[in-house]
């Protein structure tokens, strides 16, 4: 019997495996011609990463060598592109020689890297990461000392390229469009840990970064320009943003294609004599990029060719990153859902994160970082759809640990290094406290006496107690936990302290390092964490509007009927006829039903519709007015009396000082609202003695009082200092506000905070220590460079669209 | 019967955020979670009528901005000790676009 003729187009991983199965099932039945555009045979493409990093040599990853092809009588046409498939004549034409006839044709053309059509994408030095040529080009570029690489794409391939280039000694920056790395395989928490690990090994990572243009000189790549104007110099630019099935040849031959070449369960295309396999195919709407399903397809191809009935059934696939030292694993479906439950385990000390997604007592997804030793066990349970209800309690600990203890809530503190600062006021580290305890201090008072830890402001008391708990074990009874909310055992004070001492600069960092029990917090903790981060890291952290209460997100106060109130700022309570006219015009134009004069000396326009906000703001901006922040946990108003300019009792220019203070402080965020007043004489018409900070002018200068309130509690201010000059009054005010901003618990007004830390503690820092006063002012001014901007103007200009409905179906119906 | 209509791009809604769609029978809030799932609910808290689209989205829940009632986005049920439910509507994502079931929205008027 004469042999059947099989032509294979493409010598990739899938076709190589298909041929192995075919020769195993029918060793002598086929006469095979194998075309490959690359000038070589089948090799293990996914092992190119170790070749790039230098951990392997190319010959080690060849899967089929010349001897193998010869043994099986395969005619190799390597380095030759196929130009045409003629289905009527059943022939395939290469660039050279006669057309080759086939009985069966296997299309395995794989995929093409997707190149973003940025300006400059065709410059020399812009490389995709796909084959050995690309790999060699990268290795060559890395050989030049001090050379730089930019990798666009923070997916599997991009990160492997980045890690390989870094190992080769290049300076590498990864630019990723999405908010976290490998967003298709990892959740936010695991993405955060991965980013941290890459940063640790010296790879720069920019997330949420939009590429704009590739800049070249003399036809060669020189830098990548981002949308925000950042320029990243580079000698090579690797684009690893994804792959597209290579369907060109098949489509020209008239085979049915969509995203890929359509195949049925038997891997047959729309022509029963033509099969397709690998990354070029589309099966039931899915295309494939990972190797496991391709191997399954290869098996089906061989069975179909030898006349057996076989079906390709896509199975769960898992992902592992081939970067030495970054252990991560992802499999299945890890979206949350009503019928799904999460089991989350975090060990901040070891940088471990594990999450299992459970549905109907079965694992349907898993994400792990840092410790993937049990990944295959979990993956097995998932693929076998095993009922896990019996071992649920200890499931997350893996197969070796069934029946263990529950998690230790103090693990985060236990994991802190000895030099971690616990008490910022007195510079006491965890090691100091442990030493004191080992020296015999077994209660809080003793630790405080020996180390001074928690002896000043006291906000680290909870942490000190936890260190004692960790050190003393059962001998120490921890006071009842006062966590921020159900998401964490940590108190506000602990979290604030740890954000500073552990330099946590993102919400994902806080959730992971402090062992949050929920995926992304809740409405109680998110606004607090967002505030702590922006107050402590004004330059590094970016404010997250989605973690703010609606009033601060939309810069207006929501009312009971869902409308908003709009309060423009009137510095020091002073206004002009032009401002009043603009307010009146705006009120008419937007049908404002209620106009109210507030207790903070300004005008409140009530009942404005949410979608009208950007327009009314733009009108008020035109008249020179900015947001009054009447909605914010931040600087509200500075109420003044007219002072000595007009009043016969006035001792100083109180309205002038009020205006100066408000101009200095407006726009700043704080743990709670912050209201000021300046009275021109002790008659105190501006009611300065019941404000968060109030200045009462006297003949000899300025009395600055703090910690007043006239809300749920009514409190009179306590005198912080009497100061001779206006400038000192301003300095002390700014320094006090910054001290409050840096140290108070979210939603504590200054009087509550002062009750905890003591007025003397405040005085030491703001009044006595002039160096510290200066440092506080400098930090405040730095923060103001970011936050003192009119949000109304910004939103009216850039975000007006988000205030409108996403769609209006009434209009669509009418059209 | 379902009639899927395209109401906008997923990227028009911030992650952990919401936008509204106006209909003849009131506003529908379209939520996007931190993991890029979308849910459509009536934009009205059963407690005092608060606009849920203005709330903080966390996990698969939203907190009403008026009095902090928390609702599950998938079922519309109030969480914790509060009792009540918000009508939900089918919504899905296809190739980065958000689709709403218009037939279900219209049924609401008949109900």
TrEMBL record, chain A:
Residues 558-622 form the Nitrite/Sulfite reductase ferredoxin-like domain. Belongs to the nitrite and sulfite reductase 4Fe-4S domain family. CDD domains: NirB_Fer2_BFD-like_1 (cd19943), NirB_Fer2_BFD-like_2 (cd19944). Pathway: Nitrogen metabolism; nitrate reduction (assimilation). This is Assimilatory nitrite reductase (NAD(P)H) large subunit. GO terms for biological process: nitrate assimilation. Residues 318-385 form the NADH-rubredoxin oxidoreductase C-terminal domain. PANTHER family: NITRITE REDUCTASE (NADH) LARGE SUBUNIT. Residues 633-772 form the Nitrite/sulphite reductase 4Fe-4S domain. Binds 1 [4Fe-4S] cluster per subunit. Binds 1 siroheme per subunit. SUPFAM superfamilies: FAD/NAD(P)-binding domain, Nitrite and sulphite reductase 4Fe-4S domain-like, Nitrite/Sulfite reductase N-terminal domain-like. Coiled coil: none annotated. Siroheme binds at residue 685. It comes from the Bacteria. Its cofactor is [4Fe-4S] cluster; [2Fe-2S] cluster; FAD; siroheme. Residues 5-281 form the FAD/NAD(P)-binding domain. NCBIfam families: nitri_red_nirB. InterPro entries: BFD-like_2Fe2S-bd_dom, BFD-like_2Fe2S-bd_dom_sf, FAD/NAD-bd_sf, FAD/NAD-binding_dom, FAD/NAD-linked_Rdtase_dimer_sf, NasD-like, NiRdtase/SiRdtase_haem-b_fer, Nit/Sulf_reduc_fer-like_dom_sf. Residues 422-468, 484-533 form the BFD-like [2Fe-2S]-binding domain. [4Fe-4S] cluster binds at residues 641, 647, 681, 685. It holds the Pfam family Fer2_BFD. Gene3D superfamilies: 3.30.390.30, BFD-like [2Fe-2S]-binding domain, FAD/NAD(P)-binding domain, Sulfite Reductase Hemoprotein, domain 1.
UniProtKB/TrEMBL annotation, chain B:
CDD domains: Rieske_NirD_small_Bacillus (cd03530). Pfam families: Rieske_2. The keyword Acyltransferase does not apply. Residues 5-100 form the Rieske domain. GO terms for molecular function: 2 iron, 2 sulfur cluster binding; metal ion binding; nitrite reductase [NAD(P)H] activity. Keywords: 2Fe-2S, Iron, Iron-sulfur, Metal-binding, Nitrate assimilation, Oxidoreductase. One of its GO terms (biological process) is nitrate assimilation. It comes from the Bacteria. This is Assimilatory nitrite reductase (NAD(P)H) small subunit. It comes from Aliiruegeria lutimaris.
